[in-house]
Amino acid sequence: MAGRVTAVSSNAAYSFSKPNRAHVTLLAGLGVEGDVHAGETIRHQFRMTYEPDLPNLRQVHLMHEELFDELALEGHAVAAGQLGENITTRGVDLLGLPTGTLLHLGEQAVIEVTGLRNPCAKINDFRPGLLGEVFALDPVSGEFTFKSGIMAVVRRGGRVRPDDAVEAELPPGPHRPLERV
Asked: Which Gene3D superfamilies match (predicted)?
């Protein structure tokens, strides 16, 4: 499975959206250099209050640009970085990857997929009604579907830019489906 990076974003302050950048630098074991969510332990603003010593499985947030196309059909204009992701991709089925997949980004960087992003109510503060489009209950199975991207940790650092290649390396089987992290 091959695709490409369409945008990279980071923010040094807690904010729902992240501005697009010409490049981001991934730091092994930490995340996106200069991003508020970088660190060895959890940096999610709410979860830090009750689980401050947990390992940071959310160092890098990835979003598939195809979601923006889907949301546009429902009347929601969303662009790269606006939902808080660090790396926006096209041509990679991010939500279909198993836990532990390695994503090779550009020439050097390698990240390991840890799970699904758990969408929060702040999405509706950004665009009213958007949460219902990225978080849905399957009426048959009763399972929730999370479409707001995936999370990863940095295994090998490097610079990532728009138009860089994304190559997925699946882990040995049996594969574990993504769960919320």
From this structure: PK beta-barrel domain-like
Contact, 118 vs 46, CB < 8 A? no
DSSP structure string for 13-73: S--SS--EES-EEEETTTEETT-TT-SSB---TTGGGT-TTSB-S-SEEEEETHHHHHHHH
- Does 28 reside within a domain? yes
* DSSP one-letter string for 75-99: T----TTTTS-SEEEES--GGGPPT
Does residue 179 belong to any structural domain of this protein? no
- The rounded distance, in Å, linking the Cα atoms of 79 and 75 is 13
Answer yes or no: is 176 within a domain. no
From residue 39, alpha-carbon distances to 56, 58, 88 in Å are 7, 9, 21
Q: What does pTM read for this prediction?
A: 0.93
